[in-house]
Amino acid sequence: MDCQTVMREIETRLYAEDPAGTAIDFMTETHMGLVPVVDRDEKFVGLLSGDRLAHLMLPKMLTMVRGVTRASYLRESRAELRERLEALRDRPIGELVDRSAQVVRPDTPLVDAMFMLSNKQYVVPVVTDEGRLVGAISFFSVMHWLGESGQ
């Protein structure tokens, strides 16, 4: 069984050159915490995650100090958090993505994608030999595929 059999095609493209507000709005509307990003040639660039956005929304002083795991002493307002989110909106999506995500080809055995999923890569992009994004595999796409009748 290969990845093409299980992958979900990507219907909405998020482009690296577009403002991050486009991705933020898409992620909020669809409740997706991890989305693939492409360039104008449809080539995969990286993954944008809610984790990454949350990190970028932290007060700058917390991101500069290593080893800090709690900051409950800070009292932040909704306005302060919103201000940092709004500051991200005009940056290009490509500046915010994780470019180290592993990818698979359509003919890659599904077990390889499952291994990536089990190692905390929650979405595995499926790309052609030329790097063009054609789909993605997540735990949920695997579960959906397994639940289909007649398989």
CATH architecture: Roll
Q: What is the residue-averaged pLDDT?
A: 89
CATH superfamily, called what?
CBS-domain
Question: Main beta sheet, described?
Answer: 2 strands, antiparallel
Rg of Cα set: 17 Å
Helix content: 25-40%
Q: Gap between N and C termini, in Å? A: 12 Å
Q: What structural category characterises the helix and strand content?
A: alpha+beta
How many structural domains does the protein architecture include?
Answer: 1
**Given the C-alpha coordinates, what overall shape results?**
globular
Determine the strand fraction and express it as a percent band. 5-15%
List the helices and strands and how they pair.
Blueprint: H1 3-6, H2 20-30, E1 34-38, E2 44-49, H3 50-56, H4 60-64, H5 78-88, H6 110-118, E3 123-127, E4 133-138, H7 139-147
Antiparallel strand pairs: 1-2, 3-4
How would you describe this protein?
This protein is 37% helix and 15% strand. The chain has a two-stranded antiparallel sheet with strand order 1-2. The protein has one domain: CBS-domain (Roll), CATH 3.10.580.10. By secondary structure, it is α+β, with helices and mostly antiparallel strands.
